[in-house]
Amino acid sequence: MPQTLKACATLPHPMAPIMTPVTRFIRESEEVFTFDLAPEQVAPFMPGQFNMLYAFGVGEIPISISGDSHAPERLTHTIRAVGPVSAALGKLKAGDRVGLRGPFGVGWPIQEYKGFDVLLIAGGIGLAPLRPVIYWLLRHRAAYGRVGVLYGARTPDDLIFRAELEEWRRTPDFQLGVAVERAGPEWTGDVGYVTPLLSKLRFDPADTVAMICGPEVMFRATALALEDAGIADSRIFVSMERNMKCAIGHCGHCQFGPHFICKDGPVHPYDRVRNLLSYREL
Amino acid sequence: MKDIAELLRHHPFAEGLDEDTMALIAGCAKNVVRQPGDYFFREGAAADSFYLVRHGAVALEAFVPGRGTFTFLTIKAGEILGADWLIPPYRSSFDARAIELTRAISFDGKCLRDKCEADPRVGYEMMKRFIPPLLKRLQSARMQALGMYDAANA
Ligand SMILES: Cc1cc2nc3c(=O)[nH]c(=O)nc-3n(C[C@H](O)[C@H](O)[C@H](O)COP(=O)(O)OP(=O)(O)OC[C@H]3O[C@@H](n4cnc5c(N)ncnc54)[C@H](O)[C@@H]3O)c2cc1C
Ligand code: FES
Question: Strands A18-27 and A97-104: what pairing?
């Protein structure tokens, strides 16, 4: 499989964060927020690549780019506050600065699968790393077959990118399914796990590529459902998460079996990682 | 009767069912319609029916004192609604409320149980159609219970 962009070659030194201003901050839900950065040096990126964001005095974490790869001058990140660094990033406002390194990693193989039906399945914050793929598909719509996006979240209040979800729902030739785990009586959408919605999507399994982003427990179950639907595991791609330090393949922090998630991934074909996923020690 | 058998034939539940069995179980069935907000069944009530949803959507709900009513699953066209009629004490475990105009084929649980008892072949056909979706729902419920969208990988 030809890989798209490899580790970043555009930074003066890939380990040196560049102070970058926040230009816009949006709260998506109680725990999730999105901000745009205006990088001094604009570097092209591919959907699925990530940056290292440094909250000064707290730490640095990998965060996928959630914006449009056709507009790399505005670097968008969508983050769920789970611990010290993500919570510190959640306190930023327009005009503040963060340390930025990147883009890093191998993204979604969207260029390699022109002409295919494309399924995207996201759980929770996993919609953020897949949003650039959606932008890509909408921009190059004629180059792909049927497109289906499934998105699962905890509750209706946890849904992110709500205005865009409505827009995508109204987009012709764009199948969107949203399921929440539980909801109050005012919610008239789907409630339940996300994979049963697969049966409502139209796609030709022999010519479909699927991309999954969410916690490991979710993508393992989803990959099985996709295989049951007839999609070969070599055409199922998952985005792996491991703790990272250098993000350029030097420190070994993100090692997963023979792979370094930071430079061989984060996106991997499922057939490459499925056996490794059964080793709980990894 | 013929109408019900015809409706049944178009529901995925009946896929592969022979004509005799179709006619036999159609004898326990009738067509029903629920307006949005109407209940198919309520928690604690006798579970004397189950439904094959033809159009619309139904929310399965549980009431949590102090927190209100929660939907934990929606059932759509082509799916089965209600499983408590299968096992004693035949009592509904939750509420099922139409959230859209919903049309369904309603089966009398006792009538169908009697026919399954009388002819185990029919019983086995029914079991083959009930167990897979129920197992899938159980697996999904496990995923939901794990709160998997919040899980960390690293
Ligand atoms: C390639 C890559 C891309 C990523 N992209 C994004 C992104 O776009 N948006 C985003 O929000 N996160 C993303 N992450 C995850 C993010 O880097 C981690 O959540 C990070 O560890 C948070 O750091 P922290 O200091 O805030 O919390 P930590 O101190 O690292 O963790 C605090 C607590 O939260 C738990 N935790 C850690 N990560 C998660 C998680 N992802 N979900 C739930 N609980 C967690 C930990 O187990 C711990 O208990 C990505 C990770 C990788 C490897
Ligand atoms: S984070 Fe250092 S090798 Fe991947």
Answer: antiparallel
Domain A7-104 classified CATH 2.40.30.10? Answer: yes
Q: Which CATH number fits domain A111-277: 3.40.50.1400, 3.40.50.300, 1.10.10.60, 3.40.50.80?
A: 3.40.50.80
Length of chain A: 282
A281: confidence class by pLDDT, cuts 50, 70, 90: low
Contacts of B144 in chain A (CB under 8 A): 181-182, 192-193
Give CA–CA dist A178/A159, Å, rounded: 9
**Confidence band (pLDDT; 50, 70, 90) for B151?**
low
Domains of chain B with CATH codes: 2-111+119-145 (2.60.120.10)
Using one digit for the tens of pLDDT, what is the confidence trace for A220-269? 889 999 999 999 999 999 998 888 888 888 888 888 888 888 888 899 99
Cα of A242 from ligand 1 centre, angstroms: 9
State ipTM.
0.83
Query: From the candidates A181, A194, A243, A273, which should be mutated to test the interface with B, based on the most B CB atoms within 10 A?
Result: A181
Residues 73-112 of B with CB under 8 A from A: 73-74, 76, 97, 99-100
Closest CA to A32 of A212, A153, A144, A130: A153
- Distance between CA B9 and CA A142 in Å, rounded? 38
Show me where the domains of chain A are located.
7-104, 111-277
Which ligand 1 atom sits closest to the C-alpha of B151? 43
Ligand 1 within 6 A of CB of A266: yes
Measured in angstroms, the CA of B63 and the nearest CA of chain A are apart by 10
Ligand 1 pocket member A79 (CB < 6 A): yes
**Nearest ligand 2 atom, CA A247:** 1
Residue with tokens 């999904």: B140
Judge contact between A194 and B73, C-beta under 8 A. no
pTM, two decimal places: 0.89
